[in-house]
Amino acid sequence: QTNKQTCLTKLGCQVTTAVFFTLFLASSPAFSASPLYDGVPIAPVQYGWQPDYITDKQLQKLDQQIQAANADQALQHNFAYLKAQCQIELAHWTYREVRTTGITEHLAQSAVHNLQAAQAKQGVALISAPSPGYPRRPFTQWQKLQQLAQQRGTVCAPQALACADAALLGAEYEYREGYGNYQKHGIHFLKQADDYLAQAEQQIASCQTQNNRHPLSADALFRFGRYQTQDLLPQGRVQLQQLAQSLSKSAIEQITVVGHTDRIGSDQANQRLSQRRADTVVKLLRQLLQQQGINTEVIRFVSEGRGESQPQVHCNGNQVTEALKACLQPNRRVEINVISRREG
Fold this sequence. Notes:
Strand content: 5-15%
Number of helices: 10
Number of domains: 2
Shape: elongated
Structural class: alpha+beta
Helix content: 40-55%
Order of helices and strands: EEHHHHHHEHHEHEHE
Strand order of the largest sheet: 3-6-4-5
């Protein structure tokens, strides 16, 4: 692919559209690589001296497969795919330094993991786990990456964030060796990480997002006083299905579901009911979005219960009658707030 953009050899990878990814700060889940990935054997890694090492031809073929997976440009802004690109390039680097510690094989497996995650529309960690044998070093750049992960607008900086993560893995690898050219290479990788973090910070700061509010009547969603999935009314399911369909083309960063109740009942009971309803809606909405082919692993979901604290209407009387219930109906609601990238 002639227009291939690599993360570790040049800066300025441009992002023209949003990518959705969740900003996990924990380690990636353990990955058992397939024995064969389109002709490239990726055996379980034995860290340290091992009988079989990945060859340069196998690395090249895996690199070609990563590029071929994006032939239709469908994955060009997918965070997991971008991470696979960065990691296979780092694997080329460690291979050229003739490392026999298993680091090259580990990076190849990680690239396969991320490519498979991209193709399956699954989320991956923003911050990679330390490479086995290369413990996490207290680089200030890791802290900066974590800080950026907490900010709104990360949907606009996927490639810079992926490249920064890979560059820091490279720095940890080089500094672990600790002498001669390795030290120089470590400084080189840290400089690259600084450049990518600065790029990400600028893209996040200039990212235009929008907050769309979707209020739904709790009476249409749930049976009166209930909150579980089996308590959802047919019309409530239809409303959530329609909402999921309308969001299928959006670059979603966060969905916040807020439950509200009327003043009938105790404060504690209403607070608990509103929170449970919000939790149920989050669970169902996640499932419905997945059915639309949306990678929900890259969306932050938040549920809040505010009980009776924010009424929309005020009604006279304290005796619970059908008339009072009807009057208070607007207060029984669920609000769904969607933060997404502003288009245009």
